[in-house]
């Protein structure tokens, strides 16, 4: 261990994306270890038997195994603490719960129908996700640029990677839906300097200091 927190991560994992974005936005320097899914390091298995990323190993020995806990650690006490506090509003917590529960289940059924024990069918899963998650997001985003107002909060960071993954399954279908506010919100996040920084490519199985993000990554319109 070094003095820097060590983040076990996987570039394409949406849970790891939200953790990296929070650490970068809070300007918390960290070391990243890019894992290979089929060859997870023994050090990760030793501190986190669940062996799923992200896992943050702090210099005092504390291990954070949930992405939302990592986001809390990163944002609280930083210059972006207001973004964490706004994410604690009941409406925001409901969005997070829906995203990490029902929407994630439907996303998996839509993207990986062959892996489901009781598959819904891709079209049914997609329709349910549209009705239960994306349309409520559309209604909310019709009134503000971000989920909790005119500035992003932790909930935006938490949801972007999952909506991104959903949209990428069939981009033409997603763009054809009556979701202009969601589509604009998603693109705003994906084009941000913060998201671009979080998607830096690192060699696998090497602990490296993760590149920093710009200090004001949402300044651009």
Structure characterization notes:
This protein has 221 residues and is α+β, with helices and mostly antiparallel strands. The chain contains 10 helices and 5 strands, in the order E-H-E-H-E-E-H-H-H-H-H-H-H-H-E. It has helices at 14-25, 42-47, 67-75, 81-86, 90-111, 122-141, 154-169, 171-176, 180-190, 193-198; strands spanning 6-9, 31-34, 55-57, 63-64, 207-209. It has a 5-stranded mixed beta sheet. Helix 5 packs antiparallel against helix 6 and helix 6 (122-141) crosses helix 9. The longest helix has 22 residues, at 90-111. The chain is globular, with a radius of gyration of 17 Å. The model has no long low-confidence stretch (mean pLDDT 94).
Topology at a glance:
Layout: E1 6-9, H1 14-25, E2 31-34, H2 42-47, E3 55-57, E4 63-64, H3 67-75, H4 81-86, H5 90-111, H6 122-141, H7 154-169, H8 171-176, H9 180-190, H10 193-198, E5 207-209
Parallel strand pairs: 1-2
Antiparallel strand pairs: 1-3, 2-5, 3-4
What order do the helices and strands follow? EHEHEEHHHHHHHHE
The number of strands is 5
Mean pLDDT: 94
Percent range of helical residues: 40-55%
Summary tags:
5-stranded mixed sheet, 7% strand, alpha+beta, 221 residues
In short:
The chain has 221 residues and is of the alpha+beta class. Helix content is 52%, strand content 7%. The protein starts with 5 loop residues before the first strand and ends in a 12-residue tail after the last strand.
């Amino acid at each position: 261990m070094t003095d820097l927190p060590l983040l076990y991560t996987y570039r394409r994992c949406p849970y790891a994306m939200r953790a990296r974005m929070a650490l970068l936005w809070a300007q918390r320097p960290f070391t990243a270890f890019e894992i290979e899914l089929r060859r997870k390091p023994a050090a990760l298995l030793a501190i986190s038997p669940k062996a799923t990323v992200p896992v943050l190993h702090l210099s005092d020995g504390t291990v954070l195994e949930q992405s939302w806990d990592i986001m809390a650690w990163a944002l609280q006490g930083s210059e972006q603490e207001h973004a964490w506090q706004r994410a604690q509003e009941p409406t925001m917590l409901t969005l997070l719960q829906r995203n990490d529960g029902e929407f994630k289940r439907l996303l998996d059924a839509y993207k990986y129908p062959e892996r489901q024990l009781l598959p819904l069918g891709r079209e049914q899963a997609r329709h349910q996700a549209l009705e239960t998650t994306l349309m409520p997001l559309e209604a909310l985003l019709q009134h503000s640029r971000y989920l909790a107002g005119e500035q992003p909060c932790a909930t935006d960071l938490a949801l972007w990677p999952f909506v991104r993954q959903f949209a990428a399954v069939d981009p033409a279908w997603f763009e054809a839906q009556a979701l202009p506010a969601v589509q604009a919100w998603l693109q705003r996040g994906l084009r941000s300097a913060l998201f671009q920084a979080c998607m830096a490519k690192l060699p696998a199985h090497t602990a490296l200091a993760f590149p920093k993000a710009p200090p004001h990554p949402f300044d651009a319109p």
